[in-house]
Specification:
single chain; about 210 residues; alpha/beta; Beta-carbonic Anhydrase, Chain A; 2 domains; five-stranded mixed beta sheet; 5 strands; about 50% helix
Amino acid sequence: MDIKKIFKNNQDWVQDKLNIDANYFTNLSEGQNPEILYIGCSDSRVTAEELMGVSPGEAFIHRNIANMVPNTDLSVMSVIDYAVLHLKVNHVVVCGHYNCGGVKAAMQSQDLGILNPWLRNIRDVYRIHKTELNEISDEEKRYKRLVELNVQEQCINVIKTAEVQRAYRERGITVHGWVFDIHSGRLIDLKIDFSKILQNVMEIYRLE
């Protein structure tokens, strides 16, 4: 890719927006009020705004390898804190995708150096659900199921946070688990039962 082409694309994009609305960037600079916090994968094929069909200002976006929400990651924890407490989003979405390289790498026993600590979080998901996963003989189906279970566990990690628990009590924030089917372009709602998960984790993870 020619980097200069990016700046030309940017100029064209600016002009297109101004042709439609002369005050577009003036209004955009006044602040943001997104309804959604989207936590997705860094995969270059999965663009959050496009797959949701949202415009700038409508979703607060965080992306990392395999859409993880480990409590030791200051970046994702800070994003959740800011989005929930300050931007006051009403929906938190964790979105994984089939054919995820991070999840596939975690299924292998290869030593991947600096990636090992990160991938261990996904391997922990496999360990928790190994009975179900080991019963799936088809490797591709097992791979897809791990993608779904990883999304589910990351939703649980979101629900464990004090910010989300407080926002649920104060304004009924909801948490969603989605998978993007990269083969069809469809978004699949895993129908995460937020209330049930919250009840299950509150005995240990209740934070006032």
